[in-house]
UniProtKB/TrEMBL annotation:
Cross-referenced InterPro entries: MazG-like_dom, NTP-PPase_MazG-like_C, NTP-PPase_MazG-like_N, NTP_PyrPHydrolase_MazG
Region (Disordered): 251-279
Lineage: Bacteria, Pseudomonadati, Pseudomonadota, Alphaproteobacteria, Rhodobacterales
Coiled coil is among the record's keywords: no
A GO MF label: nucleoside triphosphate diphosphatase activity
Annotated protein name in UniProt: Nucleoside triphosphate pyrophosphohydrolase
CDD domains: NTP-PPase_MazG_Cterm, NTP-PPase_MazG_Nterm
Residue stretches of biased makeup (Acidic residues): 258-267
Organism of this sequence: Lutimaribacter marinistellae
Gene (UniProt): mazG
Organism superkingdom: Bacteria
UniProt-listed Pfam families: MazG (PF03819)
Keyword line: Hydrolase
């Protein structure tokens, strides 16, 4: 039998070996002498974009209820964690088992009503408030004193805006209800129009960002996730525009051969069909 770092390590070919098999495969891929040249060249920065991409593919499979695909997508995402942990172990930072231990400790600490002596007889809202209190204490231990500390910089902009607003709201910096946010949207739209008339590119971008930020805030007050809502609308736009293209193709035409009026009519027809099926 070959050395345990080699390809003939028995666990690599044992389909029932679970996570240990995957960890050994990762070690083998990163072996400086016998591993894969591409995997060996990677570092945290080069792998991070793949990690983000895999998380989105998990979300996409869930949105499409593609459960067979979800199994594979979750595996891809798990492999990203294993990849990062292997690189961390090589540098002496931590191991995959440290990751598992940290996550397990965190879940036990954050659920005293399940793993401790606190009562489970409380609402989901109360549990959410307790969760946030525990997380605030964890941030304090990390010397994160500001209300906005710890909100990741590289989150998608809509998601980060919502998280920033939630953090600010916890310390009382928030509008009392959605009507005030709607008034602010009107104000920001007027300021955007002024910036457009001035033709100042920086001012235009600034005011456009302000308007987006307030719209995210409106969604939060309505109990909606802005990132999720926009993803849903993106998917809806894609479906309906593809229906327009298909209808034009039946006439031997492409969008660029059509008029806006004709495409609008086909768009309305696609929308009507969707609503009829849904209703």
């Amino acid at each position: 039998m070959a050395d345990q770092t080699g390809a003939d390590h028995p666990v690599i070919h044992d389909r029932d070996a679970g996570i240990e098999r995957l960890l050994e495969i990762m070690r083998r891929l990163r072996d400086p002498q016998t591993g894969c040249p591409w995997d060996i060249e990677q570092d945290f920065a080069t792998i991070a974009p793949y990690t983000i991409e895999e998380a989105y593919e998990v979300e996409d499979a869930i949105a499409r209820e593609a459960w067979d695909e979800l199994k594979g997508e979750l595996g891809d995402l798990l492999f990203q964690s294993v990849f990062h942990a292997q690189m961390a172990e090589e540098k002496g930072h931590f191991t995959f088992q440290d990751v598992v231990r940290t996550m397990s400790d965190k879940m036990v600490a954050r659920h005293p009503h399940v793993f401790g002596d606190e009562s489970r007889d409380k609402s989901a809202d109360q549990q959410t408030r307790d969760w946030e209190t525990i997380k605030a204490a964890e941030r304090a231990e990390k010397a994160q004193q500001g209300a906005l500390d710890g909100v990741a910089m590289n989150l998608p902009a809509l998601l980060r805006a919502q998280k920033l607003q939630k953090r600010a709201a916890r310390v009382g910096f928030d509008w009392p209800d959605a009507s005030h946010v709607l008034a602010k949207i009107t104000e920001e739209a007027a300021e955007l129009e002024e910036a457009r008339d001035s033709m100042d590119a920086d001012a235009l971008e600034d005011e456009f960002g302000d308007l987006l930020f307030v719209i995210v805030n409106l969604g939060r007050h309505l109990g909606l996730e802005a990132e999720t809502a926009l993803r849903r609308t993106n998917a809806k736009f894609t479906r309906r525009f593809e229906a327009v293209e298909a209808a034009l193709a039946e006439k031997g035409k492409r969008p660029e051969d059509s008029t806006l009026e004709e495409m609008d009519e086909l768009w309305d027809a696609a929308k009507h069909r969707e609503r009829t099926r849904a209703g």
